[in-house]
Each structure stands twice: as C-alpha cells, then as structure tokens.
Amino acid sequence: MRLYVERMAYGSDAIAHDKDGKTVFVRGAVPGDTVEATLTQDSKTFSRASVESVLEPSPSRVDSPCPYAAICGGCPWSSMSHEAQTEAKRAGVVNALKRIGHFDADRTEELVRTCESPSDPWGYRNKVELAFAQAGARSIIGMHAADEKTVVRVNDCHLLEKRFSKLPKKVSGAVTYLANSHGLTFDRIGIRASRRTGECEVALWTQPGPFPRAQVAKILGDAANLSSVVRVMTKGPKKARKIVGVERLAGHGNWSEVIGEEKMTVSAPSFFQVNTVGAERLVELVVESLGPQEDDEAMDLYSGAGTFTLPLARRSAFVSAVESYGPAVRDLRRNLEQAHIENVDAVGGDAGREFPDTDADIIVVDPPRAGLAEDVVAQLSEQSARRIAYVSCDPATLARDLERFERAGSYRVKSVSPVDLFPQTFHVENVTILERV
Ligand SMILES: C[S@@+](CC[C@H](N)C(=O)[O-])C[C@H]1O[C@@H](n2cnc3c(N)ncnc32)[C@H](O)[C@@H]1O
C-alpha cells in the first residue's frame, strides 16, 4: 500500500494513516516520506507495515554512515537527519504531556523547550552491550537486530566513541573463541570505554558455575587493552535474572569516567549515564535550575553512583542521597570518599521507604523508566523545597507523575527540557523543573 508518513511514534516506527483513516505503524520510514509498504499486522484499531520502497523521500531522510544500519536494531532513527530527530523527540514529549498527563495544549507548548543535543550525534556512547546467541554449535556475538531476537555480527559500532569503535570486534573475537574452545555461554557482554580516563572494562554476564577465570582474563587481555575484566553472575529465568555476584578477573574490577569536575567509579552492574557529554549537560541543567546555596539542604533520590550527588554536595550544606541497588550505593560511597566529600548521607534502600526525614530546600529525583511510585510523589508533595528537578528517561511515566504532582497541588511544572542523550534512537531524557506553589 502507498502511505504518506506523518510523524514518529515513541519507538522505532513512524505513523501514517491508510485510506480509511486507520493508524498504520510503519517500520523503516521517516516523517515526510511517501512509501510503498507491506502490511505485517492488521487489527481493528491499527495496523503495522514495513517499507518496501521509498517512493518520494522526505527532506529529512539521510543515509546512515553505519554499514550495519539495515540489519542492526541499535539505531532505529538513523535514516533521519539529527535535526529531525530532535524535533520528533520534542514533539513526542509534548504529545505525552497532553495525552497522558492531560496538560493543556497551549501550556504544554510553552513548558517544553527545544530539544538540546549536547553531544555529537555519533560516537557519543561510553558503553555498548553485545548479545550472545548460539546457532547449533556456533556462537554468535553481536548486536540485536530490529526484531530484538536475532543476533547479527558487527565489526564496529558507530555509537561508541570513535577511538574505541573497533573494540566490539576485538572483544567478540575473543569471546567467540572462548565460547567455542571452552563451551562457555554468556547472557551478554558489556563494554565500557572512557576517552577521558582511557579505561576500558569488559563485563561477561554468565550463569554461576565452573569458569576458566585465568584463561578468560588472558585471552581478553591479549585481544584488547583493557583496564578491567569482570564476570557478573546471574541466576533465574531469562527475563528476571538476578545478579548473584561479581568477580574481578583482571585489572581494577571497576571502571572510571569523568563527568564535569568529578571522577566517577562504577562497578559493572551499576547504572551509569552512557553519554558522558550529555550527562554533563544534565548536571548543568539540574544545578542551574535548582540554584543550590551554601546553607541549603538537598535531596537526591535514585542517586546511583552520584552523578548529581557530588555536584550538589559541593554547592550546598548537606545532601541526603537514596539508592536501592547495593553495588551502586557502594560506588556512591567510594566516589564521595575519593572526592573527600563528607556532607552526604548515602542511604541504601527504596526511595519511598527510606524517604529522608528532612525538609530539603532543593530536590533531584532521577528514577528508572517506571517513574516515581505514587507514594514518592505524595511524600515529595509534602516537602517545602523551593524546587524539584525531575530527571526522566521516559516521557510517558514523566507525564503521569507530573499530573500527580499538579493534582497534589503543592508543586507546579515550570519547564520541561528535553535533552538528546541517545541520538539515532527514539529515547529522550528530560529535565523537568517543578516549583513550590
Ligand atoms: C536512571 S538511574 C539514575 C542514577 C543516577 N542519578 C545517575 O544519573 O547516574 C536510576 C537509579 O535508581 C535506582 N533505583 C531503582 N529503583 C529504586 C528505588 N525504588 N529506590 C531507590 N533507587 C532506585 C537504580 O538502581 C538506579 O541507580
């Protein structure tokens, strides 16, 4: 069928409408394209289609510089110019606030700023994850294809900092050899590489059990210049694997990056911002908007290893930080110690249950995709802090939570700043500032 493509959905697909007005999610299209597409799914309310050929290309259509763009699922928006990507991201945030948060259309347009793109659109990542699959006796290490099931071999990744773009090939060669010669299997292989510190870490995610530690360390060490090799052991059914231990196989056993003035050291399973330059902009936006004062008490919920905790601690009297993941709490405490920062209470536990018993002046929250639990919004709403910075990587849960804040009545949304931390993908980070009414 012939379709005119209107806009991007929050995902890999674009949106068009068929001749009867039914929404069609189109894979492989760019807004402004006219395409010939084949129907892949049809239901009463919507259908899905895949582009067969582009009849009239959109002015925003570009050729991806990545030779794997057609087979790898890592960069679903790479056929769109970066400018069009950031426009589509802002439009997606506006749409979520209106549709999910029930914000008034005019107010939403005023609240949501232009989407910033602080980093280069390629070569911005400090981390990639390689998938592992077996086809008969053969091991395949590479990237997930667009179907998120098939694993495709790749020799480099244009998203990884340029200096490290060949690292995936070297690591996957070594891991393939280990899998074939020692019968090893892996859940996945994580690579973290920092241009600023020069540190590179490989994390092998495996099931517990016998493991040829010395050989693995030697073969990976021969293949690439690594500052750390670790094994992360997981147990349980595939979708709900639990981390049961981390073993250092060679080098430091952790990895360091510099964000602004702060050196951050993190263990392999801990969350860390994947776009270093982008993370610096997030910190700037949070610090500028909260305006910490010398005698302020600050709160940092979902603190991770301390991306916001350290800069806030340097500019205020005291920070209460809460993080639920044990290794990340240990990372945070080590980062504070490394930086000789003593005015932080780093609490391990759930943000709602361990909600600090303090009346903070400024607050930052940076929850995972699921957003804030309802009781956390309720507890935050009882605070008298002058401002809350809500850092979010999911526009839908952000919109839901902002509506809850405004309903509670004590905070009102002042601005929403989308930041393109993940060019070539549909993901977008947002820094929202809420002000005490
Ligand atoms: C998006 S990350 C942000 C981390 C940190 N702010 C940063 O920028 O590096 C979210 C963090 O929340 C933590 N987390 C998840 N659920 C939590 C909960 N219920 N209570 C406290 N922390 C939680 C995760 O372990 C993770 O470190």
Automatic annotation (TrEMBL):
<dbReference type="GO" id="GO:0032259">
    <property type="term" value="P:methylation"/>
</dbReference>
<dbReference type="InterPro" id="IPR010280">
    <property type="entry name" value="U5_MeTrfase_fam"/>
</dbReference>
<feature type="binding site">
    <location>
        <position position="366"/>
    </location>
    <ligand>
        <name>S-adenosyl-L-methionine</name>
    </ligand>
</feature>
<dbReference type="InterPro" id="IPR012340">
    <property type="entry name" value="NA-bd_OB-fold"/>
</dbReference>
<dbReference type="InterPro" id="IPR029063">
    <property type="entry name" value="SAM-dependent_MTases_sf"/>
</dbReference>
<feature type="binding site">
    <location>
        <position position="302"/>
    </location>
    <ligand>
        <name>S-adenosyl-L-methionine</name>
    </ligand>
</feature>
<feature type="active site">
    <location>
        <position position="393"/>
    </location>
</feature>
<feature type="binding site">
    <location>
        <position position="273"/>
    </location>
    <ligand>
        <name>S-adenosyl-L-methionine</name>
    </ligand>
</feature>
<dbReference type="Pfam" id="PF01938">
    <property type="entry name" value="TRAM"/>
</dbReference>
<dbReference type="InterPro" id="IPR030390">
    <property type="entry name" value="MeTrfase_TrmA_AS"/>
</dbReference>
<dbReference type="GO" id="GO:0008168">
    <property type="term" value="F:methyltransferase activity"/>
</dbReference>
<dbReference type="Pfam" id="PF05958">
    <property type="entry name" value="tRNA_U5-meth_tr"/>
</dbReference>
<keyword id="KW-0489">Methyltransferase</keyword>
<feature type="domain" description="TRAM">
    <location>
        <begin position="1"/>
        <end position="53"/>
    </location>
</feature>
<dbReference type="InterPro" id="IPR002792">
    <property type="entry name" value="TRAM_dom"/>
</dbReference>
<feature type="binding site">
    <location>
        <position position="323"/>
    </location>
    <ligand>
        <name>S-adenosyl-L-methionine</name>
    </ligand>
</feature>
<keyword id="KW-0808">Transferase</keyword>
<feature type="active site" description="Nucleophile">
    <location>
        <position position="393"/>
    </location>
</feature>
<keyword id="KW-0949">S-adenosyl-L-methionine</keyword>
<dbReference type="InterPro" id="IPR030391">
    <property type="entry name" value="MeTrfase_TrmA_CS"/>
</dbReference>
<comment type="similarity">
    <text>Belongs to the class I-like SAM-binding methyltransferase superfamily. RNA M5U methyltransferase family.</text>
</comment>
<protein>
    <submittedName>
        <fullName>23S rRNA m(5)U-1939 methyltransferase</fullName>
    </submittedName>
</protein>
